[in-house]
Every structure is written in structure tokens, then in C-alpha cells.
Amino acid sequence: MRILLVDDEKEFVATLAERLGLRGITADWATTGEAALAKAAESDYDLAILDVKMPGISGLKLEKLMAQQHPRMKFIFLTGHGSVSDYHSGIAEDRVIDYLVKPVNIEALIAKMQAILKS
């Protein structure tokens, strides 16, 4: 399982990658949409976990770009309480994509990751 975490909060995304690593899940991370696209061009990821609101390329736009380039990649969004409505208004109606609200419960995230990768 190859995971890419993308969030503009460097401390958060680095800590999340470390916490996943302690549970045996290797995750690369990026703090911008541009950096995420570059990583995705270099490696095949099974799953990307994206922050909805980021400067530059938003998580919603990033998902669309990555899905075009990597049709088999799955996505989970992380959203703050203020961006839940942005998530719902920006999500494609023809696709079901999961999201979790920050702060993230690591066990809930892992369960959602496992479920989405089995679908």
C-alpha cells in the first residue's frame, strides 16, 4: 500500500506520516498541490489523502488532476470544520469519495483507508 498525504500544514502532515509509519504504513507527504503532482508523477500511489483547503491548488482540484493521470488511485479528503461545506459543494456528483473532519482520529483514518482500498 503506497500512500500520499497532502496538507499545507507541514507539522500536521509530517506527524501524520510518522504516526502511520508506527502502524506499519509507509506514507510520503507533500505540502503543496504542485509538490504532490510531482511525487505522483514519480511514484504510483494507491491512495492520496488530501486537505480540502490549500493555497494554490486546492485538494478538490488536485484530486481531479491526479485522477486524470492515475485513474486507479483512490482518495480521502481531510477537512476542517469550516471547509465541510466547500467539500460538499466541490465534490463530483458521479463519484463517491470519503472524507474525515480534522482533528483526525488515526484509527478511524486507517479503517477508512483499508475500506476504500478494498472497494
General description of the model:
By secondary structure, this protein is α/β, with parallel strands linked by helices. The chain has one domain: Rossmann fold. It is built from five helices and five strands, in the order βαβαβαβαβα. The protein has helices at residues 10-22, 33-42, 59-69, 84-90, 106-118, and strands at residues 3-6, 27-30, 47-51, 74-79, 98-101. Strands 2-1-3-4-5 form a five-stranded parallel β-sheet, with helices on both faces. Helix 4 links the parallel strand 4 and strand 5. Helix 2 (33-42) runs parallel beside helix 3 (59-69). It is globular. The two termini are 14 Å apart. The mean pLDDT is 87.
Layout of helices and strands:
Elements: E1 3-6, H1 10-22, E2 27-30, H2 33-42, E3 47-51, H3 59-69, E4 74-79, H4 84-90, E5 98-101, H5 106-118
Parallel strand pairs: 1-2, 1-3, 3-4, 4-5
Q: Name the CATH homologous superfamily.
A: Response regulator
Computed structural class? alpha/beta
CATH class: Alpha Beta
Shape descriptor reads globular
Task: Please tally the helical runs, counting DSSP H or I stretches of 4 or more residues.
Answer: 5
The level of helicity is: 40-55%
Strand content: 15-25%
> Can you write the helix and strand succession as a string?
EHEHEHEHEH
* Radius of gyration, taken over Cα atoms and rounded to an integer in Å: 13 Å
Q: What's the architecture, going by CATH?
A: 3-Layer(aba) Sandwich
Say what the CATH topology is: Rossmann fold
Low-confidence stretches: none
Q: How confident overall, as mean pLDDT?
A: 87
Largest sheet: 5 strands, parallel
